[in-house]
Write a structure and sequence with these properties.
2 domains; four-stranded antiparallel beta sheet; alpha+beta; four-stranded mixed beta sheet; 4 helices
């Protein structure tokens, strides 16, 4: 009879230990996922366009290096150099190769991204911000990100309005009439 009491109390003790361990594990898991730091984590979507090399698409490694990390970066975000592999797949034309990859969580700040493309290396400096679109596109043959081009083309776009300027002398000629 004493043996059955011992066995029953041992079972209760085992259940108590199991319940305690489960509660501790659940508490630590909830601490990992629901804090304010998790909201501020941000990723970057990296897109690569290339051409086949001897009929095959070669995967591209994107080296991502921090230039200046903003203060107060979330604890779980990367703040050191890392590499994101981009697997390229052949397009329907059997010549183009494309691929996308999402980076690990990055700390907000300025990051330099370098892609070793078949034609040459391409670099891109990008400000990574929480809640912003942090996409980066690399195209084989371009040494800068295509997103950087519109900023440089903004001034020539204003010059495109310059042909309208000859209309101004016509108004000036009308003003010189009596």
């Amino acid at each position: 009879m004493q043996l059955s009491w011992y066995t029953a109390s041992r079972g209760r003790f085992a259940r108590l230990v199991l319940v305690t361990a489960s509660a501790a594990a659940l508490g630590s898991l909830s601490a990992c996922g629901g804090g304010d730091d998790a909201v501020a984590l941000t990723h970057s979507l990296v897109k690569v366009q290339s051409i086949t090399q001897q009929g095959n698409c070669e995967d591209v490694m994107i080296k991502i290096t921090p230039v200046a990390i903003n203060p107060g970066a979330p604890k779980l975000s990367a703040s050191k150099e890392f590499v994101t592999p981009v697997k390229l797949t052949k397009g329907a034309d059997n010549v183009s190769c494309t691929g996308t990859a999402t980076t690990i969580p990055m700390a907000p700040g300025k990051w330099k991204m370098t892609a070793n493309l078949p034609s040459e290396n391409a670099t891109c400096d990008r400000d990574i911000a929480a809640g912003a679109t942090n996409d980066v596109d690399f195209k084989d043959g371009d040494t800068k990100c295509p997103q950087d081009a519109p900023k440089a083309d903004a001034a020539p776009a204003a010059d495109a309005a310059a042909p309208a300027a000859p209309a101004a002398p016509a108004d000036g000629a009308a003003a010189s009439k009596p």
